[in-house]
Amino acid sequence: MWGRDGPSLLELARQALSGTARGYDLLAPKFDLTPFRTPTEVVDGALSELGPVRRALDLCCGTGSALEALHRITSEQVVGVDFSNGMLAVAREKASRLSGPPQIQLERADVLSLGYAESFDLVTCFGALGHIVGEDEPRFLRVVHRALTPGGRFVVVTAFPPKPLSLPWLACHAFNGVMVARNALIRPPFVMCYLTFLLPDLERHLRWYGFDVTLDRARFPAPYEALVRVIATKR
Question: Cβ–Cβ contacts within 10 Å for residue 181, how many?
Fold first, then answer.
């Protein structure tokens, strides 16, 4: 669908009809050839001027789009967590090409159930916040807050909501409606929703959970100029 080597429409349909983890297992070998992968320009822009840090945690690390950038700014250990064995297999292949230090550790786990306590100077999450919806959003922010050392930073890229009735607004709401219908009819569910963790609500929620928040705008190149880097520092 995206070039000769990208996934076909049939492959994407098969993924969407599977559960979330199984769907990403199926898509993993071709995931980096789709627009769903967080672009390198966005990752680099989000992580620039943050280092050095001692230990970093990348939540929902997927195929490891942030591994190389985190490797450059981390001195001791980078930990990546994802629930898809297929995505982790691709990430491990990338990690094998990076010489340490830091040590790279990739593990399969539910990010909402992590037990890390004051273990990391930096926590990131790229391109996966749409999989954390509803009551899981506050659970996710509690996991992040607990995992960070005092003064540690949570870095994420988001945006402000699209203008109501604009094309992006209509497209996102149409997709969300299709996913609600799909999950009402098919089990297991495929959890994915657009328009989550948007500003200004995200900033308010982060402050409520014990972070000081800085918003960095106009730091990403076209066509990503609407994106905003959020740096949330644990009090």
Answer: 10
| Whether 137 contacts 107, CB under 8 Å | no
Which residue bears the tokens 């918003």? 215
Burial environment of residue 184 by CB neighbours within 10 A (0 to 12, 13 to 18, 19 or more): exposed
Strand intervals (E) in the chain? 53-59, 74-82, 103-108, 120-125, 148-158, 211-216, 228-234
Question: Are the C-beta atoms of 43 and 227 separated by less than 8 Å?
Answer: no
94-111, pLDDT tens digit by residue? 999 998 799 999 999 999
Q: What's phi and psi for 229, nearest 5 deg? A: -85, 130
Cα separations in angstroms, 83 against 20, 163, 174, 188: 9, 33, 27, 15
Structure tokens belonging to residue 29 = 């070998």
Say how many CA atoms lie within 13 Å of 28 toward its Cβ: 23
Task: For the chain, give the mean pLDDT.
Answer: 95
Backbone angles phi, psi at 201, to 5 degrees: -60, -40
Reading the block at residue 218, the tokens are: 């106009």
CA of residue 202 relative to chain centroid, distance: 15
Give SS3 for 151: strand
DSSP assignment letter at 79:
E
The rounded distance, in Å, linking the Cα atoms of 66 and 64 is: 5
Tens-place pLDDT, residues 134-161: 989 999 999 999 999 999 999 999 999 9
